[in-house]
Design brief:
The chain is built from two helices and no strands. By secondary structure, the chain is mainly alpha-helical. The protein is rod-shaped and about 115 Å long.
């Protein structure tokens, strides 16, 4: 294409080319939005996992405390039964 032909082509198809470029931009923006939404979903999923781990840690701590209390109680009961049997 010669320079003049190219100029006429762009003049005649200006709105068509502008519309195509707008569609390409729209597609890029939509892809970026999808990417951001996926990132947000991943962050929310990780937050849920962290909260579950925190609850599990608290549960484990409570179970350990309960086990120690039962151990002390059973130990006291053993000594009490030893002294009362004589």
């Amino acid at each position: 294409m010669k320079k003049k032909e190219r100029k006429n082509f762009f003049k005649e198809n200006f709105y068509f080319i502008a519309a195509l470029m707008a569609l390409k931009r729209k597609k890029l923006y939509e892809a970026e939005i999808d990417k951001m939404m996926n990132t947000r979903m991943n962050l929310e999923t990780q937050l849920i996992h962290i909260e579950n781990a925190s609850v599990n840690l608290e549960t484990l701590s409570a179970m350990q405390t309960g086990a120690k209390a039962l151990k002390n109680l059973h130990g006291a009961m053993y000594y009490f039964s030893l002294f009362n049997s004589y």
